[in-house]
Amino acid sequence: MPLRFSSAAVLLLILSLAPLPAGASSLRSDILQILPVETGEVAFIDLQVVRSSPHYKLLKERLIPPRFAQFEQFVGTLGVDTDNDLDWLAWALMPPTAALREGVFLGIVQGQFKPERVQKFFETQKLAVYEHNGVTLYPFGGGRDASGLYFAFLDSSTAIFGFQRGLELFLDARIGAHENLLRNSGMLSLISEVNGRSPVWVALDQDYTRMAIRQLLPEAARFPEFASVAKTFNASLMQVDVGREVTLSFQAWCENPSDAQAFSVLLQTGLAAQSWQEQEKNPALGKVLSGAVVRSSGERLELQLTADGETLQALLKLR
After folding, report:
1. What pTM was estimated for this model as a whole?
2. In angstroms, rounded to a whole number, what is the distance separating the alpha carbons of residues 227 and 215?
3. Quick one: three-class SS letters along 18-65?
């Protein structure tokens, strides 16, 4: 499944980030290139930037996936200071296919880990572990079968976590036993536009783009024309720019300029309706939505949402 954030939650977590340091962290190429070829969504969070925000606790509650929270809680009991020792978090989603049947989630996190302490703990407690391609998978989150959560260490600074199938696909791709993202040039090209340039970014293929727009811009998705326009989506990106104001940028690519223009009209109409609905119950959110800028250039459509300091403070009070 794609990210499940409401419009308000997205604005809260994105717009409350502190200004960027000299250079944002990036998803390492050695990890990126060996993601399974089926990957349809890749998300990245620079945890060091998020921690620098005065709203860290709120951001953590709303931004971090529940599966990472479970992993974080478990490794925290083994001596990892998760509020200081972790650098960045990324995850990849793969949609259901004939081979996968169910969608696959894979998380990757970089930080300062203690693999030997984890191994000793499992040995001392006589807990069952699982090996795949020479890598030990440790169960956590209450499950010890294919439906349970596992984590593993690629080295002392890199861990992967998720359900068994996701970890197996990644470890197979790592040794060449499964096709990797190098065979998916479209997704790699998309990620290259944002990787290392924003503290939080999400890259989505056409199917995940369709689902994300339904979640983020529900009013636009209600128009009868949306179904036909959605068929033309090729990919999309979400990222952050920080200056005097904070801007959330969402870009989508359609099959041709006329499709992008049609999508632009739907977005502008949908945003106007959504802004009007929010004016009374969430005026700060309504203000941001009413100031949205939508433009198209060729096959690309861009949506920008901007908040100044006063509006940002009001947004942060939303539940």
Report:
1. 0.84
2. 14
3. CCCCCCCCCCCHHHHCCCECCCCEEEEEEHHHHHCCCCHHHHHHHHCC
Q: Domain boundaries in the chain? A: 18-184, 199-315
The CA distance from 213 to 150, in Å, is 31
Q: Which burial class, exposed, middle or buried, applies to 93 when counting CB atoms under 10 A from its CB (0-12, 13-18, 19+)?
A: buried
Residues in the chain: 319
**pLDDT tens-digit series, residues 199-253:** 888 999 988 998 888 887 777 888 888 888 888 999 999 886 555 556 778 899 9
Q: How many helices (H) and strands (E) are present in the chain, helices listed first?
A: 14, 12
The structure tokens 């198209």 sit at 296
- The tens digit of pLDDT for each residue in 153-164 reads 999 899 999 888
Nearest to 110 by CA among 133, 73, 80, 136: 80
- Can you list the alpha helix ranges (DSSP code H) found in the chain? 7-15, 29-32, 47-51, 56-63, 66-76, 115-124, 164-174, 185-192, 206-216, 218-221, 226-230, 257-281, 283-290, 309-315
CA nearest neighbour of 235 among 157, 166, 140, 301: 301
Rounded Cα distance, 312 and 245, in Å: 9
Rounded Cα distance, 54 and 149, in Å: 32
C-alpha 168/C-alpha 151 separation (Å) is 11
